[in-house]
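=== RUN LOG ===
request id: a7f3
mode: sequence -> structure
chains: 1
length: 848
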Amino acid sequence: MPQRRDIKKVLLIGSGPIMIGQGAEFDYSGSQACRSLREEGIKVILVNSNPATIMTDSDMADAIYIEPLEPEVVANIIEKERPDGIIAGLGGQTSLNITTEIAEMGVLEKFNVELLGTSLQAIKDSEDRDLFKRKMISIGEKVPRSKAVNTIEDALTTIDELGLPLIIRPAYTLGGAGGGIAYTKEELVEITEVGLKRSLIHQVLIEESIIGWKEFEYEVMRDKNDTCIVICNMENIDPMGIHTGESIVVTPSQTLSDVDHQKLRSTSIKIIRALGIEGGCNIQFAVRDDEVRIVEVNPRVSRSSALASKATGYPIARVTAKIAIGMTLDEITNDITKKTPASFEPTIDYTVVKIPRWPFDKFVTANKHLTTAMKSTGEVMAFGRTIEEALQKAVRSLEVDMYFGYKEWSKEEILEILRHPTHERIFVIYYALQNGMLVDEISRITNIDLFFIKKIRNIIDAEETLKVDISPGNIRYAKRMGFSDERIAFLSGKTREEINDLRRAHGIIPTYKMVDTCAAEFAAATPYYYSTYEEQCEISQSNRKKVLIIGSGPIRIGQGIEFDYSTVHAVTALREEGIETHILNNNPETVSTDYDTSDKLFFEPLTLEDVMNVIDREHPYGVMVQFGGQTSVNLALPLKKELERRNDLNTVILGTTPDDMDIAEDRGRFNAMMKTQGIIQPEAGCAINYSQAFNQAKRIGYPVLVRPSYVIGGRAMEIVYNERDLGRYLKEAVKVSNEHPVLIDDFLENAVEIDVDAICDGKDVLIGAIMEHIEEAGIHSGDSACVIPPQSLKPEIIATVRDYVEKIALALNVVGIINIQMATKNGIVYVLEANPRSSRTIPFVSKA
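=== RESULT ===
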C-alpha cells in the first residue's frame, strides 16, 4: 500500500538538550527521520532546542524552530505551520510527553493535526504503568506483581502486599529517572516522592522485586498491515536490578535456547500487535528458568533502538518515519543492500558488545552504585567474532584508565562490589577470577550467567599463555580474543613496537568484515566495517583520494555531541570536493556512525593501533584529528611518531601539525610563546611533583586554578584556596608526574570570561564569534551561559581580543579551527588557553 497522499507536511519534535538517559541517539534518529520523510516528498517542520545537533542544521528540514520544548511553544508552531501530521516517537521521551500533552490540550484536534504512526491510546497503554499492566494481563502475559500509586500513603501499603525490596518505576519518564530500588520503608518514601514529581501524570508503579532475573530486550517493528519483524534481540550481561542503559549488553543473545528465543519472539510480536504500535518499539523481558515477566515497552525509538540499528545495520528510525506516512515494510527498501525490502529480518554473523560510559572520572565523589536509574552519559559499541574479542575492544573504546588488571581490591571490597555493583564490577570479576575465586561462586553472588564469567576466564587463561610464549600462533590467537598490541607487550615484557612489528612480519594483520544486515547473503551498497583477525577481508579499495577522520568516541562530560557535529560537517565538506571520506568511531548513538554519513565507516576503538590498522589497509592521503575533541587530539603526536617510524606509509596528518597542537597543550611551551608575542596571561606554573606544586602555588598566591594537562571539559579542574586544599587535590584528583604535569594558574577573581572561535588557513584568520560569558571567570566555559554578540565589553577590549586571536592563530600555524579562552579584568585582557581543534561552542556559533 503506497504512502498517504493527504500527508504533505509533518511536524517532528526533537529531544532537546543532552541529559542522562536521553543522549545523542535522538539526534541520530531525528536526523534519519528528517531525511527519510523528505525522500518521500514530505515537507518537514522541526522544533528542537539543542543547537549542537545535526538535526537542527538548516538543510535538515524545510522549517526549523530552535525553541524551548514546551507544549505551549509547540502549539504556537502548529498554529502557524498547520502540519497535516505529527510523529511522536522519534524524539525520545521529551517528544512523546509533549505530543501527549498537546493532544490532551486539544491542540491536535483544533488544528486538524493527525498523530501519525503509533496512536495516542497506544502511547498511554505503554507509558501509563497501570494501563500497561492491565493490557498485558488482558493478552495473557505476566508482569511483576505491582500497584500504581499517586501518593506516598498508597506507596506504603505496598510493603505488606509485595514485601521488600521494591522497585519504583515512574510513568512517562526516561532512563529510569526518579526510580530506584527501596530496601527499607524510608527508602520507599524517599524514592516515591522523587518519582511522583518526575512523572508527567504524577504516578509511579511499585513493583515486586525481580532483582537477579536475566534481562532480554527485543527490538520489534510493525506496519499498518500488521506485518511484524524482530530486528534483533539483546541480552543484558547484568541481571535485573540495573537499568538496561547501565548494563553491559550483548547481541545476539548468548544464553537463550532457540526454544526460549522463539517464545520471546512470538510474545514480542503479540505485544506490539496488542498495543497497536506502528513503527519501532523496544520490549524488555525478565526471565528466570521457565518464568517470563514483561518489564516494559517503549513505544518509540530509544537508546536500545540506536544500538540495535548500528549493531544490525537496520535503520529503525528511517523505517519508522516511512511507516508513519502509510508505507508498509514490503514497500520500503533496505538502504544497506538496496535490493531487499525492510520486511526482511536482519541476520548477523558476529557479536556486538555495548558498555556504558559513566562520568565517575569527573564526579569522583558521586554514588557509583548502579541501580534502575541511569547515571551513564553515553556508551561504546564494539564488534567481534567472539564475545572475548568484542568485550576487550569495547573496554578499549571507553577511554578511561580502566582495563582488565588495572587495579587491586581487598577480599571485602571484591565481595561488596560483586553484591552491589558499581561501574567497576566487570573488572572486579576479572580480578576475583585471577585470584582464585571460582566461576560458580561469582555467578551465585552476581546472578551473572556462568557463560559470561567463563569468557572472562578465557581472557585470563590467554594472558597466562602470553606471559611465557609469544609465538606467532599465540599472538594470532590473542588478537582473535581482542588483545591489543600494547596489552600483549605488557604481558610479555616487550614494547608495543616490538609486538606490532612481530605480528606484521608474520602476516598477523586485521581483516575487515561488513555490517550488511544479511550475513553476506546480499551485497551491501553502504560499506560499514569492523575488524577481526580472520582470513578473508571484505573491503574493496578504490583509487580515489581518501581522508580518514577520527571521531570523538562516547559522550562524556566535557566531550559531547558538539564534536560529532563537527565530524559530520567535515565529512560533508570533503565529499563535496570529491574526496573519499572515512570515519573511525565507536559511538552507536551518533550521526557520524550512521551507515550513509561517510564513504566508509570503521566501527573501532579510538586507539593508535586501531587507527594505524585502518591506515595500513586503506592508505589514505591524510588523517584529520581536529574534529574529534581531545580524544583525537591526544592521538596526534603518537600517530605522527608511528607514521615516521613506519617507512612504508605516505599518510600525513592534515591541518594544524601535531607539534603545534602540542605547543597549545604543553603549558610551558605555550607560556613561552605568549611571551614572545607580548600577550598577557595570568601568572602560571607547572609541576611534576608535590613539592613543585606547593612551591608554585605559594609563588603565585592563593587562590589558584589547578588542572591536569591534556584533558577536556575541565576534567579534574579546581580552584584551591590554601595548601590543605591543594594537598587533597593532588591526592584525590590527579596523578602528578613527568608525563602528567599539573598546571597551576593565578585565579582571576571577578573577571569577565571571553570565548572565541576562529578559522585560520595559515595566513588569514576569520573570527566566527566573540562570546561573552554571563557568569564571571571561575565557571568552566562549558558550564557557563554566554551571549553573541558581547553585551558589556568595551570596543578597546574587543579590539585587543581580535588582535590576540590573530597573533595566536598565526604563531601556532593553525590550519583549521582554533578556540581561545580569555578573561578581562580592570581593562586588561588575559589569555587563559588556546585549543587548535573543534570546540563545544562550534555548533552554537554556527547556528547563531
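=== NOTES ===
Residues 629 and 787 are 23 Å apart (CA to CA).
The mean pLDDT is 92.
=== END ===
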